[in-house]
Amino acid sequence: MAKVDDLSRSLAALDQDTTLVAVVELSSKSWLVGASVPAVQRHPLKKLDPDASALLKLLERWRGEAERRGRRIERVVVAYEAGRDGFWLARWLKERGIEAYVIHPASVAVSRERKRAKTDRLDAAMLLRVLLGWLRGERGHCSMVAIPSLAEEDARRPSRERETLIGERARITNRIKGALNRFGIRSFNPLLRKAAQNLEKLQTAEGGSLPANTLAEIKRDLARMAVVREQIAAIETARVARLEQAPKTGPNAMVRLLARVIGIGIETADMLVHEVLHRNLRDRRAVARYAGLTGSPDESGSRRREKGLTRAGNARVRRGLIQLAWRFLMFQKESALARWYRMRTAGATSAQRKSLIVALARKLLIALWRLATTGEVPHGVALRPAT
Q1: Which strand (E) or helix (H) includes residue 77?
Q2: What domain range is 82 assigned to?
Q3: So what's the pLDDT on residue 115?
Q4: Which of 119, 245, 281, 354 has its CA 20 to 30 A from that of 386?
Q5: Model-level pTM?
């Protein structure tokens, strides 16, 4: 089995005499570019407008400056921190023959001084130091984020948009119920198809009809609810059509395989595949770390304590897995994972069961990762018939 590059350190040897190394501190209004240029004693620093073409011209200018001093540049490396701008710049630079990386912000160690100075110049210098250490192959300087292709990044959008719409639907529902509670009405369900018709029949606790402004507000909220419901249905219909058009292609095959597990629906399977299972992760520990389902020990001298989950990974995956773990206990009662949970929680308190559900979620994620990547079915798990 080929060894997976976990991006914790560079696997290529660094020759600083022939390598131009640059970092970009990105912001919405300007970019600050710092570099280490062979044969140039100073560390040049240049502020640019947010323009990729201007960045490319600046790199070519620095390359020419090094070559005029007798150093031939054979490798150009550019890195920046992951953030609002995403990965488009890294892909754009790679298409033009430049080695581009995206630094994981949480992997960069910072000063623990109470009032440390923080400016774009200092941040650019810090990024340049950690990037040089990473390029030398030394561990612990920083970690890089895997750069997804445009298709991979776009494949995550339907699931994330649906999650946003579900949250919007919940906000509208709570707003309607809150408005009606002020008049003593607690039996109205805004999620019903006939909610708009039932609204006209409502009576306040005082025996009168709803005030005109409140009634108009709730009608507008119900209209927004209808739009959100239509958009959710459109996303779900498009997902099913995509799976039917190319059932055996890449991630789609994984989604269909996971959806065969009783208790896992198409939405959960699609989210897990595109967020975590389709990624080229090194091993089961890396899978659990990506979801933030690993512990955070605090050990110093004789002190030994656990601070709980790191919560440093993908929060969307973590939330979905904990919900799935509870559902898994209902639909897969004879599986080895469900039996393990029942054995460990026999006589346990409610708080202990909640803590152990996280351990079950971690085991379940690893089991589903093995199912999706190797086809190994978890022991005792019931599957739906293949279609």
Answers
A1: strand 75-81
A2: 19-147
A3: 83
A4: 281
A5: 0.85
